[in-house]
Structure formats: structure tokens, C-alpha cells
Amino acid sequence: MQTDPQTPNLATRAATAFRAYRDGDPSGMSRLVDEVSPLLWSVVRQQGVSRTTAEDVVQTTWLKLVEHSSSIADPQSVLKWLITTAKRDAWTSAHRSRREEPGAAEDVRDREPDATSPSPEGAVLAADEGSLLWTHFQELPERCRTLLRTIAFADRPDYAHVAEALGMPVGSIGPTRGRCLAKLRTALTTDPRWGDTTR
Q1: How many CB atoms lie within 10 A of CB 182?
Q2: Where are the compositionally biased (Basic and acidic residues) regions (predicted)?
Q3: What is the CATH number of domain 1-117?
């Protein structure tokens, strides 16, 4: 993937936001959460935990960062720290859930975190490749962003529940989703940088 040399990668943006937070700017943490949360969601969900557990793990990861912020010597390493912490906690939660399942035949005591999930370095690379997609996603109308997030973070989206939460008819969710994805696709295909990622 070719990236715009003027655009800092995710690790650098995270470091800048974290440094600002440690220097006393509360908005630094807000920027850091906005930048990194989508990646943490992906890392956590790849460990096979439920949506509710994923929410708890991601929230706990941010709380741990606040608690240990002064112990992170190099702000440039904060992204790796977040990924490693989230992945470890997600694996622990998944391990506990499997162990508590009645009649579970598989002994998971020695199971390691999912080998197919990305290493911190691999996750950073994947995040950089997806940064352009995320940039255009953020530019969608709020209704589109909310709808796509709601559906994306659900194992099996309950359209009745989604419709109630968003105040829209059940029958309009599918067409609205299609229009939102079409807007995103158009934004990407008209961005010359997106062509660089598919060559």
C-alpha cells in the first residue's frame, strides 16, 4: 500500500494524542480513543468473544491505559501496548468462557491466543491499510455511521432492535445500509489514494 507521505500512520497519530494527554490535554485521550478503538474492536473480536465481552475488554483496556500511562516510557509504543493488552485480556475472557461451558470436552488450559489473529506489528500494518477506509467512513452522514456501526458490531443483528434504536422502519434498514455503503464505495473509488492500495 502506498500512503500519503503527509499523513502520519496510526502509530504516530496515537503517539501524538497520547503525548498530548500526558502533557495535560484531556482531548488527547478522546482523540486516541477515536483513532484506536476500531482496531481494538477487531483484535478483541478475533479472539472469539461475544459483543458484550468485547465491550468490557475494550473499556477495560482504556482504563488500564489511564492507570498505567505514566509507566509507558515511549509514547510511540502506546499503540502496541494497547493491542497487546486488549488481545491478552480478550484471550483470558475467551479462555474463561470456554472453561465454564457445561460439558466442554476440550481442555483449554494450555491454549494460546488465536494464532490467526494479528501480532501487534501486523495489526498496526492492517490498521494503516484500513486508515483510508476509516477516514471516508468518518465523513459519512451520522445516520449512516450509526447504522453501519450498529450492524457491524452485532453477531446477528436484530433488525427490529436496530430499527427501534435508530428510530427507523425495519423495512428501511436494508435499503439504507445499501445506500450508505454505496456512498462509502463512491468516496473510495474517487479518491486517487485508494487506487494505490489495490495495485
Answers
A1: 10
A2: 98-114
A3: 1.10.1740
